[in-house]
Specification:
By secondary structure, the chain is α/β, with parallel strands linked by helices. The strands form six sheets. The protein has a six-stranded parallel beta sheet with strand order 2-1-3-4-5-6, with helices on both faces. The termini are far apart.
């Protein structure tokens, strides 16, 4: 049995890409191992959004130099966004790497691994065309990678799965490398998305998470019918076996009323929207080339709250972008105070070579200022999250049980039939931890909440018969 080690950094899209690669290599006779020493093939699926993610991969590659010397037929590969961005630079920094594969060529990984093992010593590069390296259709085709193979063991849980409905991005935010490494925006045909959802339901999956760089920008015309994103949500709602539908990441200007209506009216649609604002200052949004103003974002946010008062909205923010003043930063703090996001993902600006910001805008905010602003915004968001979670005390929520909690796994308390600390999520993506047993994993259970902090609700399973009234709050919680 051949052994495969795969390490994934970055977003949900990368997690899905790794699942597809593992599924393809299992057909070649591979099994997974958690040790690079045991592995015949070592793959890194990479991210280029921040420098830290790239540094982590280059450091991991450096640790494999001696292992490759001792075991020359060990195949080492770098996949994903960093592979597309750096290309032959990876070979120069780590000459013992055998294959470099962009995100649009992942279906070629099994063949490339076979070739590297049968003819060692060569360096194999397979990447997509650059945004200006050919005709538009050829560039799109070179980035297209919708592999139908799935591997349930690689999913967050057996009952949840990512479904890619879109690749690429045409927004060209000045700080972002994604349009270069993921290529032009392309929407996947609805027939393929629905077929994959039915396949996943047949495998026991209960929740699908639709993925796209700007997922609510999805549009497609198939067999003469023009589909909107909301139409896709309605169609997925009819798939038997699927109980929950989520989607990330949304673009503010494309959060149209028909999308909000679908999320509100469809019982399977999670009442959860991830809509990055990125900043609270119009000047910073202009420099970022985000394509909207703070007034636009506020209107979208307020409209979503009018349609669904209990909807959970989360956001992304960048601190320390080029030219950010203290006044700019305070506008971001004001926006977070006003919108009271369920949570926010907060990042210090990391200049990415190849972006317009790197070419045209100075990275002029000192790192200590970035760190301070990051910590201040994070503290504010945590305070808001904890305050808002208090309203769930005494409430009953419906929880899709995902598996043992992180604490239970860390403590090694995952075997046997006795009590087990479990974790799951509500319909608005709040994490709930409670005592249960392994047989409950994969079920949707009523849980009474008795405690809460900024990130987690704590509860206990309600054992009496649960009528429809029990889930009145769960639909929005």
């Amino acid at each position: 049995m051949k052994k495969l080690y795969i390490e994934t950094v970055g977003c949900q899209m990368n997690l899905l890409d790794s699942e597809l690669v593992v599924a393809a290599l299992r057909k070649e006779g591979y099994e997974l191992t958690g040790s690079t020493d045991e592995a015949d093939t070592v793959l890194f699926n990479t991210c280029s959004v921040r420098q830290h993610a790239e540094d982590k991969i280059y450091s991991a590659l450096g640790r494999l130099k001696d292992a490759k010397r001792a075991m020359p037929d060990k195949v080492i590969g770098v996949m994903g966004c960093m592979a597309q961005k750096d290309q032959r630079l990876i070979f120069r920094r780590a000459p013992y790497v055998d294959i470099v594969v962009g995100p649009g060529q992942l279906h070629q990984v099994p063949q490339l691994v076979r070739e590297a093992r049968s003819k060692p010593g060569g360096q194999r590069l397979e990447v997509s065309l650059g945004r200006t390296d050919g005709k538009a259709d050829a560039i799109k085709r070179s980035h297209e990678s919708f592999d139908p193979l799935r591997d349930p063991t690689m999913r967050p849980t057996p009952f949840q799965a990512y479904v890619r409905i879109q690749i690429g991005c045409d927004k060209f935010c000045t700080y972002c490398i994604v349009p270069s490494v993921r290529g032009p925006e392309q929407s996947r045909p609805p027939s393929q998305v629905l077929a994959e959802a039915r396949q996943l339901a047949g495998e026991g999956c209960k929740e699908v998470v639709l993925l796209g760089q700007t997922v609510n920008s999805w549009r497609h015309t198939e067999d003469g019918r023009a589909w909107r994103f909301s139409d896709l949500l309605y169609a997925l709602h009819e798939v038997d076996g699927i109980e929950r539908i989520k989607f990330v990441t949304s673009y503010p200007k494309d959060m149209t009323d028909d999308v909000l209506r679908a999320v509100r009216d469809l019982p399977k649609a999670c009442k959860y929207l991830h809509v990055p604002a990125q900043h609270g200052s119009d000047e910073q949004l202009r420099r970022m080339k985000r394509g909207y103003t703070i007034a636009d974002y506020r209107e979208m946010h307020d409209r979503a709250k009018r349609w669904m008062p209990d909807v959970a909205i989360t956001s992304d923010f960048i601190v320390g972008f080029s030219g950010e003043t203290e006044g700019d930063f305070q506008q971001t703090m004001d926006l977070v105070r006003e919108c009271r996001f369920k949570n926010s993902f907060i990042f210090k600006y990391s200049e990415r070579p190849g972006t317009k910001a790197a070419d045209r805008l100075p990275d002029d905010v000192p790192d200590e200022v970035k760190r301070r602003r990051n910590n201040e915004l994070l503290a504010l968001q945590n305070q808001i999250s904890e305050e808002d979670n208090q309203r769930f005390l005494g409430a009953r929520v419906g929880v899709l049980v995902e598996g043992p909690s992180k604490a239970a796994v860390k403590a090694g308390r995952v075997g046997g039939e006795g009590p087990l600390q479990l974790t799951g999520r509500t319909m608005c993506d709040r994490i709930v931890v409670f005592e249960g047993n392994p047989r409950q994993i994969g079920q949707t259970l009523p849980v009474a909440v008795y405690d809460a902090n900024a990130h987690t609700l704590f509860g206990e399973v309600v054992t009496e018969h649960a009528g429809p009234e029990l889930f009145q709050l769960a639909g929005s919680a």
